[in-house]
Structure formats: C-alpha cells, structure tokens
Amino acid sequence: MTLDVFKMKVCGNCINWRPLQSYSSLGKCVACNKMTGRYDNGGCGNYARKNLSYFDFMWCMTCGTMVHKSDYDLHIGHELVPEPYIDPDLHEETYAVD
Ligand SMILES: [Zn+2]
Ligand SMILES: [Zn+2]
Predict the structure, then answer these.
(1) Residue 37: nearest ligand to its CA?
(2) How far is the CA of 95 from the centre of ligand 1 (A)?
(3) How far is the CA of 31 from the centre of ligand 2 (A)?
(4) DSSP secondary structure string for all residues of 52-65
(5) N or C: which end of the chain has fewer CB within 10 A?
C-alpha cells in the first residue's frame, strides 16, 4: 500500500517540512527556515520522520482538503502532508508563520 517515497528520508516526509500552498513540490523546512524541494535529501540534521499522530490536522493533497485525525483512516494511501506553508510572497514581509 505504501509507496517507497514515503519511507525515504526526504524533506516531504519530515514533520518540519511544510509544502508551499502555491506549489506543493516545493516547501519550507521550518526547522532550518529554508526552502527545500519535497524530494530533497532530508539530511539537514533536523529530520524527524512524519508521524500522522503528531498532527491533529493534515492536508490531503489527493483530495485537496484538510483532514482531522479522526478521518485519517479514510485517506490511507493518499498523500497527507502538514498544513501548507503560506507563500510569503502573497503577503507582506511582516507576515509570520508560527
Ligand atoms: Zn531542515
Ligand atoms: Zn484524501
């Protein structure tokens, strides 16, 4: 059921990585405060494997919707990612992501 990429040590599998809302194969490592690609090697020293139970909500890229943890079962095999990172270019520079 699981694709190999889900087992790989890549940024897209790290809890510190947030996909860009506007371009989901790029994202931001919130631990390094750095833009990285989804399939970049997660060797930055802050890699922590994504764990569904870590998040109360996740974004399902397959369905294009937010999913509460009680509904994760309905999205097995889908691409669940942490809540997308809001591209700061769309906002003022003072916009802060916590
Ligand atoms: Zn990092
Ligand atoms: Zn889904």
Answers:
(1) 1
(2) 21
(3) 27
(4) GGG-SEEEETTTTE
(5) C
Q: Can you say how many angstroms the Cα of residue 56 is from the centroid of all Cα atoms in its chain?
A: 13
Compute CA 61 distance to the chain's CA centroid, rounded to the nearest angstrom: 10
Q: State how far the Cα of 58 lies from the Cα of 80, in Å rounded to an integer.
A: 6
- Note the ligand closest to the C-alpha atom of 9: 1
Structurally, the chain folds into a number of domains equal to 1
What is the pLDDT, as a whole number, of residue 90?
56
- Coil vs helix vs strand at 75: helix
Within-domain flag for 96: no
In degrees rounded to 5, what are phi and psi of residue 44? -85, -5
Would residue 98 count as lying in a domain?
no
| Structural domain for 38, as ranges | 4-90
Ligand located closest to 18 CA: 1
In a domain, 80, yes or no: yes
Residue pLDDT, tens place only, 33-87: 999 999 999 889 999 988 888 889 998 989 999 999 999 999 999 988 888 777 6
